[in-house]
Amino acid sequence: MTATLPTVPLLIQGEFVESATTQWRDVVNPATQEPLARVPFATADEINAAIASAKAAFKTWRKTPIGARARIFLKLQQLIRENMADLAATLTAEQGKTLADAEGDVFRGLEVVEHAANIGTLQMGEFAENVASGVDTYTLLQPLGVCAGITPFNFPAMIPLWMFPMAIATGNTFVLKPSEQDPLVTMKLVKLALEAGVPPGVLNVIHGGEDAVNALCDHPDIKAISFVGSTRVGTHVYNRASLNGKRVQCMMGAKNHAVVMPDANREQALNQLVGAAFGAAGQRCMATTVAVLVGAAREWVPELVAKAQGLRVGAGKDNPDVGPMISCAARQRALNLVAQGLEQGAVLELDGRGVQVDGYPNGNFFGPTILSGVKPGMAVYDQEIFGPVLVLTEADSLDEAIELINSNPNGNGTAIFTQNGAVARKFQEDIDVGQVGINVPIPVPVPLFSFTGSRGSKLGDLGPYGKQVVMFYTQTKTITQRWFDDPASMGKVNTTISLK
């Protein structure tokens, strides 16, 4: 007799509650196809209850002193560190990442938690004395109210930690909808947040698919939405929520290019390319998916292939170099795109499609795959594959490489490998991409800055952490005041707009 699977709860008003829904989905281990748990698609009443809980909690939370809020996140970062091994193991089981990469996922979120604990210095307003006779003006950065976050499957720890700590630390309350494919590690982080002292109603969690997303976009009490995921869904969220008067930030799809100049440090460039292309089975929105080989760097392809061929594919818990893809459907989509690329004239330099892993006959494994001779117009160039596939294209000069990248509609990240400072300077100045790496293939900034993807990779003008997100999660209120101490001036009527 098959054991009953555990169910993933909702979080409403500080309580983990069983959903009354009739619609469920299995959370599946991508290395084995073993069901791990059942996640509910929350009912409309449950979603409304979560939002109502957040709205009620906002009345007192917004007036909680900044220091008191910050201390919660000091405690949360401690709890995350203490539970790192368990969080990573859970993440690996449900998402497929290697244990080392899973710990990295948690750690990059932890950095934002630490930043949230120091948010007070970024939430200070401005003051100007005597802007007119006896008149002072100052600003307050006040929280918006109930905010919401919609997170993707590929970073089930990091991206929720990008969202709710910054929103809550600035005085908002939050409703989180994790990916229905791998919500287990997210729920463990939420539990730690409650343990750290987040009060009932300040953080709520719902689960679901399209209906849940639309409910968050439509609900009048939601003031802002942060989204990370595909371009298709992100565009829908941005348009629908914006039309409903909400602030929205959407980090979406990408096609990240790395330019390899012939003067680059050969060993470093090749190692970095392979890691950035095939780490996390290519399921990163900042993965390097296109290498632009300039001039003599075209001769490096055999070495690139050899390094990629040496990566070990396996179940994440065995800590290989490359784990499985998230689902059978994701793997099949990548297979289809590679087949289409070959039909359109790409050359198969390394084929990882038939990789087998001993002991895991049902895993969603896809080995490192490299295609050369790729050009714009081919499916493997135009579309985000989101798998362990690196496509190679060529350029005769830096100018040609820059033109190629700037012609691509996406602008999440780009990189250049060179030892020439003038070349690097020209690249960073002329490239039209929001995040640039110089000898750094995945230029995701630390939380002192902000994630600044651009063009087709982002909708909304403010990033999800750092200084920019404080502006996203707060409303600037400007106050102009005058205190009269001259009895003679109190009796005069002034019908002009002057404050003299």
UniProtKB/TrEMBL annotation:
<keyword id="KW-0560">Oxidoreductase</keyword>
<keyword id="KW-0520">NAD</keyword>
<dbReference type="Pfam" id="PF00171">
    <property type="entry name" value="Aldedh"/>
</dbReference>
<dbReference type="InterPro" id="IPR015590">
    <property type="entry name" value="Aldehyde_DH_dom"/>
</dbReference>
<feature type="domain" description="Aldehyde dehydrogenase">
    <location>
        <begin position="16"/>
        <end position="479"/>
    </location>
</feature>
<dbReference type="InterPro" id="IPR016161">
    <property type="entry name" value="Ald_DH/histidinol_DH"/>
</dbReference>
<protein>
    <recommendedName>
        <fullName>methylmalonate-semialdehyde dehydrogenase (CoA acylating)</fullName>
        <ecNumber>1.2.1.27</ecNumber>
    </recommendedName>
</protein>
<dbReference type="GO" id="GO:0004491">
    <property type="term" value="F:methylmalonate-semialdehyde dehydrogenase (acylating, NAD) activity"/>
</dbReference>
<dbReference type="InterPro" id="IPR016163">
    <property type="entry name" value="Ald_DH_C"/>
</dbReference>
<dbReference type="GO" id="GO:0006574">
    <property type="term" value="P:L-valine catabolic process"/>
</dbReference>
<dbReference type="InterPro" id="IPR010061">
    <property type="entry name" value="MeMal-semiAld_DH"/>
</dbReference>
<dbReference type="InterPro" id="IPR016162">
    <property type="entry name" value="Ald_DH_N"/>
</dbReference>
<dbReference type="InterPro" id="IPR016160">
    <property type="entry name" value="Ald_DH_CS_CYS"/>
</dbReference>
<comment type="similarity">
    <text>Belongs to the aldehyde dehydrogenase family.</text>
</comment>
<dbReference type="GO" id="GO:0006210">
    <property type="term" value="P:thymine catabolic process"/>
</dbReference>
